[in-house]
Specification:
Helix content is about 35%, strand content about 30%. The protein is an alpha+beta fold and about 290 residues long. It folds into two domains: about 120 residues, Gcn5-related N-acetyltransferase (GNAT) (Aminopeptidase, 3-Layer(aba) Sandwich), CATH 3.40.630; about 120 residues, 3-Layer(aba) Sandwich (Aminopeptidase). An eight-stranded mixed beta sheet has the order 1-2-3-4-5-12-6-11, sandwiched between helices. The protein has a five-stranded antiparallel beta sheet with strand order 7-8-9-10-13. It starts with a strand and ends in a 6-residue tail after the last strand.
Length: about 290
């Protein structure tokens, strides 16, 4: 540790930070995956480019929440965190396999948590890594098991989806309002980034509103009631042949109902880590921007 420096991340660090997370998460997936699942693959270049863009976005909005562990010219670990309306969120956190066990994880998490010290709530998606889960628990987070749906939907079971339209930047105020009702904080500037990377659909009636970003199902979904959320999820399933819908907590059983009706496979993996809040509902979180 004597030759390792913990310093603020810069936008120029983003491509190397992306490789740290790609390698670190691939090692974790390889160590933790179930035998019945396909062998884990390292993050492909197109998703790597999205990661770099997201990282630079968060370094720009929250420079105090983004840190790296560096030895010479080599990045050994990174943490990317941010605050939205008194909510602290952890977007990414990884240490390369050869540097694990040196205390870098704890050293990186400390300044990221300090960045959110004045926040009323906290939320992030956590892996099933036992060591990391203990660290999060010790930091005051409760851990809620998550499920995911995957597979090829039985298209004969997909209903005709009505009251859903294509969304745009003009819907940001609506989406921020839905965010505040479901998770207690708006996404704010994160919507501009998401709009540049994923298709958006919106449902708006006289009594309910909701939205979803789409990619192999959903990237992020929020609604003011379960009926609207289910409508958006059916639209997401209909838009893709190969479906993956993640980050489903027990409070969002409506999503399990939709997935089962579509004949998707249900699995359990990872945790939603929360501090001073209950699991959002109806809500399917984004993996990093939450």
């Amino acid at each position: 540790m004597d030759d390792v420096r913990i310093r603020p991340m810069t936008a120029d660090d983003a491509p190397r930070a992306e490789r740290v997370t790609a390698v670190g998460f691939h090692e974790l997936d390889t160590r933790m995956f179930r035998r019945s699942w396909p062998d884990p693959e390292i993050r492909p270049p197109e998703r790597g480019a999205h990661w770099v863009a997201r990282c630079r976005h968060l370094v720009g909005t929250d420079p105090g929440g983004c840190w790296v562990a560096e030895r010479g010219d080599e990045l050994l670990g990174i943490v990317v965190s941010f605050v939205r309306e008194k909510m602290w969120l952890l977007a990414s956190y990884a240490v390369v396999p050869e540097a694990q066990g040196l205390g870098l994880g704890k050293a990186l998490l400390a300044p990221a948590l300090e960045h959110g010290r004045g926040s009323l709530r906290g939320m992030f998606n956590a892996s099933s890594d036992p060591k990391a889960l203990r660290r999060y628990h010790d930091a005051g987070f409760t851990l809620h098991p998550q499920m995911f749906l995957r597979g090829t939907a039985d298209r004969s079971r997909i209903p005709v989806v009505e009251k859903v339209r294509e969304g745009s930047a003009s819907d940001i105020d609506l989406m921020d309002s839905v965010d505040r009702q479901t998770r207690g904080a708006a996404h704010g500037p994160d919507h501009q980034l998401l709009l540049g990377q994923y298709p958006l659909v919106v449902s708006e009636t006289s009594s309910a509103q909701g939205y979803a970003y789409l990619d192999r199902g959903t990237v992020l979904l929020a609604a003011t009631d379960r009926r609207t959320a289910a409508r958006l999820l059916w639209e997401a399933i209909a838009s893709s042949d190969d479906v993956l819908i993640g980050h489903i907590t027990a409070e969002n059983a409506w999503a399990v109902d939709v997935g089962m009706e579509a004949r998707l496979e249900l699995h359990q993996e990872g945790y939603l880590a929360l501090r001073h809040m209950r699991p959002p509902c109806p809500y399917l979180a984004n993996g990093a921007l939450m």
